[in-house]
Design goal:
- By secondary structure, the protein is an all-alpha fold.
- The protein contains 4 helices and no strands.
- The chain starts with a helix and ends in a 12-residue tail after the last helix.
């Protein structure tokens, strides 16, 4: 019985040592990766993004389109998607007329 406990204790000690070594190694890798990626420091300017949210896309769709009046109650997700796509197209046209170079994309969150 004592031999079994001794063997189990030895196995647990070896596994614990191996896990400690892996954690220590992982911490070194994380530290090196943060150093290479220029980490969260104040040396870089933050990237600026403009976010646009239509407050009531269903009401806008109903106001602007006859077909949206019928579809809005039955397919609200599709109508919202179409509203955002249309707003994006109109913004691109307006910005192109003013010769403002922009990159626009529609993100789903």
């Amino acid at each position: 019985m004592n031999t079994l406990l001794l063997v189990l204790s030895l196995i647990l000690a070896i596994v614990s040592g191996w896990l400690f070594w892996r954690v220590h190694r992982q911490q070194k890798v994380i530290t090196e990766a943060l150093a290479e990626s220029y980490g969260p420091d104040n040396t870089r300017d933050p990237e600026m993004l403009l976010t646009l949210r239509v407050r009531d896309p269903i009401a806008l769709a109903k106001r602007e389109s006859k077909s949206a009046r019928m579809l809005a109650d039955r397919l609200p997700v599709m109508v919202q998607r179409l509203v955002y796509q249309e707003v994006m197209k109109e913004l691109e046209i307006e910005l192109a007329e003013r010769e403002i170079d922009v990159e626009m994309k529609l993100e789903y969150r």
